[in-house]
Amino acid sequence: MKQNQPDPISQPKTRRKDSENEGGKRTRLTQKAIVETAAELFAQRGFGATSLNDIADALGVTKVALYYHVKNKEEILRLVYLTVLNIAEEPLRRIVESDLRPREKLQQAIEHHIAITANASPAVTVFYREQAHLTGPFAREIALREKDYERYFEQIITEGIAAHAFKPDFDSKIVTFGLLGMCHWLSHWYQPSGRYTPQQIATMFISLTENGLLTP
């Protein structure tokens, strides 16, 4: 079985305090650069302990320059969440819409999700730690996107039950909550330097799931 690898989430390099590179050219300030730098600072210090001035200093620009691209710090956090969700959703959608059997879809979906969760990038670290700081429309937007992501797993379970590949007495929504809860918790305890790779952990989770879910 070949693992469906997610697109990599890059880990931004530390930027110079000034806005010029080694060749003396000014660094072009972009929303992408702001999000990457902010994610790194949020991961290191926490969202609450990081100010817009901190982000501007790390980029070598003024706070006024930041306001040209973003309205406030919470909008930057929203963009960090959307970055992770955009990377996570597309490969999962392809798995769900493929011609694979439900069992194979579930295996690849679990492998994909664990690869995302175990990713040590600043953006993923922030994703699993700072959601309480999203409020109002931003919080609702991210919650809806997360529901869309959950529905892909639910669709696989429902399809498997209909095909008599999975036990009929399970509720697909409850199974999805259990699966994703198990995978999400990886973000709290997984260490890249630990005993097992994400692929090995995925294999264990798949075995645990199948032994309780598949029909004889």
In N-to-C order, the SSE pattern is HHHHHHHHHH
Largest sheet: none
What structural category characterises the helix and strand content? mainly alpha
Helix count equals: 10
Structure keywords:
216 residues; mainly alpha; elongated; disordered N terminus
Can you describe this structure?
This is Transcriptional regulator, TetR family protein. It holds the Pfam family TetR_C_24. With 216 residues, this protein is mainly alpha-helical. The protein has 10 helices and no strands. α4 runs parallel beside α7 and α5 packs parallel to α8 (172-184). The longest helix has 27 residues, at 136-162. The model is unreliable at 1-8 and 10-25 (pLDDT under 50).
Blueprint of the fold:
Blueprint: H1 31-45, H2 52-59, H3 63-67, H4 73-96, H5 102-117, H6 122-127, H7 136-162, H8 172-184, H9 186-189, H10 198-213
Short recap of the structure:
The protein is mainly alpha-helical. It contains ten helices and no strands.
